[in-house]
Structure formats: C-alpha cells, structure tokens
C-alpha cells in the first residue's frame, strides 16, 4: 500500500513538472520569435512600425524562424493596409463625386493609383508562393523574385504618386490630411515589406542560387 501511494505521488510530481515546463517552453519560443522579428525589422527604414505590425503574428514563428514566411506575412499585412486605404479613399471619392470639381478629380486620380497598388500587391503574394523555402530552380527563383520586387516597387510608386497628386491646393485641408496620412502609412508598410523580401531574397541567393 505504501509503495502504491509513493508511486502515485511520484507520478503526480512528474506530471506536474512536465505540465509546468510547457508554458515555459511556449514563453521561450514566443520570446525567440519576437527577437527574430525585431532583428529583421532593424534592417528596414521604419523598424518601430515594422515590429508593431508584425508582432501580432509572433505565434506563427514559434516553431520555425522563417525569413520566407516573415516576408510573406509582411506582404499580407501590406495588402490588408492597402485594401483599407482603398476603401477609405473610395468612400471619399463617392462623397465628392457630385461636385466633379478639381477636388473630386484629384481624389479619383489618387484612387486609381491605390487601386493599381492593390493589384500589384495581390500579384506579389501569389508570386511569392511559388518560391520554396529550401532551394529549387535558380532560374525559377530569379524570375519569381524579380517579379515580386518589380511589383512591390510599382506599388510604392503608386502611393508616392497619390501623395504628390493631392499635395496641391485643390483638396480641402482635413480631407487632404486624412488621405495623406493613410497613404503615407501604406507607403511605409510597403517599404517594410519590400525590405524584408529583399533580405529574404539575398539570403536565398547566397544559399541556393548557383553563380555563373
């Protein structure tokens, strides 16, 4: 009887220790994942914003610290921001549509740029999915990576053109300020995603692409 009680007590102790270690392990994994995100964000122009936008996805990196996955996550965050900006400017354009004056035309032109940016970012996400984590055809990688970099650069240009187009005096102060703030935020997030993709691409080339 005493041996049975001792065995049960020992089993309970072992189970308790195992269970206690799981939260610690998860906590360490999350800390490691956050450190990974912070270190990668340091390479961007807007490191604080980068950490802020990507920190909610820490759980995605607790098992594997993947540069490819980080770049793809940043792309998805950027597309979500672009679509949010698109929805806001569409709403403003609809309100101003009745006037058909310079203010309305400027906002519609800005919206055209943002619409194109959304299209470019959508293509980027689809194209990036063709890039494998560990190797693959060098020519395929070069083709896909070049497309992503080109389309992301175009999305950046779209945001810049929108800002330039509404910077004149044709748009009222409050409307102009709100649009510029949203588009500038989009521009910064796009810059972050491009920087992280470029970093991933550079690592990929160094590891897998055969030099001629």
UniProtKB/TrEMBL annotation:
SUPFAM superfamilies reported in the protein's UniProt record: Plant invertase/pectin methylesterase inhibitor (SSF101148)
One protein family per Pfam: PMEI
Keywords, sorted A to Z: Signal
Domain Pectinesterase inhibitor: 32-196
InterPro entries with a match to the protein in the record: Invertase/methylesterase_inhib, Pectinesterase_inhib_dom, PME_Inhibitor
Any one Gene Ontology molecular-function term assigned to this protein's record: enzyme inhibitor activity
UniProt cross-references to Gene3D superfamilies, sorted A to Z: Invertase/pectin methylesterase inhibitor family protein
Signal peptide extent: 1-20
Domain of life: Eukaryota
Name of the protein: Pectinesterase inhibitor domain-containing protein
């Amino acid at each position: 009887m005493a041996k049975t009680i001792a065995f049960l007590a020992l089993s309970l102790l072992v189970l308790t220790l195992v269970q206690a270690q799981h939260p610690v392990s998860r906590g360490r994994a999350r800390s490691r994942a956050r450190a990974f995100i912070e270190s990668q964000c340091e390479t961007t122009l807007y490191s604080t914003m980068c950490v802020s936008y990507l920190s909610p996805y820490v759980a995605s990196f607790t098992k594997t610290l993947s540069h490819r996955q980080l770049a793809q996550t940043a792309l998805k965050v950027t597309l979500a921001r672009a679509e949010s900006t698109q929805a806001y400017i569409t709403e403003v354009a609809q309100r101003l549509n009745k006037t058909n004056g310079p203010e309305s035309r400027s906002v519609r032109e800005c919206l055209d740029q943002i619409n194109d940016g959304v299209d470019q970012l959508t293509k980027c996400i689809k194209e990036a999915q063709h890039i494998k984590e560990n190797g693959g055809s060098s020519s395929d990688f070069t083709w896909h990576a070049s497309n992503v970099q080109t389309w992301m650069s175009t999305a950046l240009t779209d945001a810049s053109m929108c800002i330039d187009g509404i910077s004149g005096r044709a748009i009222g102060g409050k409307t102009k300020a709100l649009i510029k703030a949203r588009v500038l935020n989009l521009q910064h997030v796009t810059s972050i995603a491009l920087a992280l993709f470029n970093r991933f691409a550079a690592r990929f080339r160094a590891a897998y692409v055969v030099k001629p």
